[in-house]
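Collaboration report, partner site 2.

Our partner group contributed sequences for two proteins of shared interest, and the home lab folded both. The records are reproduced in the order in which they were received, starting with the first partner submission.
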Amino acid sequence: MQMTKLVMWLLICQIPALVGMGAVQGNMVWYHSLNQPVFAPPDWVFSTVWTILYVLLGVVGYLITRDGINQHNRPAVVLFVAQLVFNACWTLIFFAHQEIGLALIITSIMIFLTAWLMKRLWAPQHQAFWLMMPYILWLCFAWCLNYAMLILN
């Protein structure tokens, strides 16, 4: 049962990647036409980092709900799912709609939701809290990259 729940969360956390895959692939010419900041990583870094982060998020989802969903963890589950939804939206907004400014707002919301989630996880779920750390650090980097692209373009 627990292995099924872990696999379920690992699959759920792949949804943002699947939602955005077509938008990214179909708009790489546009992306490469943008003025890039000097700290913009090569394309392969994004897919590598996001693959790792989505696996970590899947483990976090599992840890949060390992004992079921109840009144104690429901707020964390809601925050977790909300940040996943915004994660999927970012890719569509940035790549498919090419709205750099709106994408920056989405990233800001993701950081806020993730920080709020981490605050809720600190006491009851130290493991989940620490597994979220690479994600929020990457989101902060992504915010800086998104902001720089907004300014440069």
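Second partner submission, folded after the first:
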Amino acid sequence: MNIHNESGFWQKMRTQNRSPLKVVPKNALIGSMGGFIAIALLAFLTDLTANAWIMAPFGATCVLAFGLWDAPLSQPRNIIGGHLISTLVGLIFFHLFGRGFWVMAIAVGLAIGLMMLTKTTHPPAGADPLVVILSGSSWSFLFAPVLIGSVLIVFIALIVNNLDKKRRYPTFWY
């Protein structure tokens, strides 16, 4: 492969195209409200109980669930399945091998591959193995915050997204 060939490698990075994203103020408002409600509920539950119900990747999940609700990677299967698979991979690798840089790298790579193979790809979930390994999470992390939190986000997305007559969420379940 000749990376200096102008019509090859570097040429692929040039474009005159513009972002296909459209600005729709009503969608921005609904997305903001959905993200607010989901994170407020998870943060409130964390303050109310001794359990952690929230983790950083849930912020990015809210961007997809409420801002790009009709995208394939934003569907319930992807949100819940992606977080579960990635967290499980992180937990297995952490409990078997500890915190090494190679453990984090292998866990993230494997999580990506498994999400793709199971049709549960959810980009925010790619961070879950890092969260698990860096925080030294216990096995219970898979249930709270991951399972319960992702199910609550999906539940709120089902309500908020379908309040708008022009939105339909989910676009698929399986």
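Feedback sent to the partner group on the second submission included the following. The mean pLDDT is 95. DSSP finds six helices and no strands in the chain.
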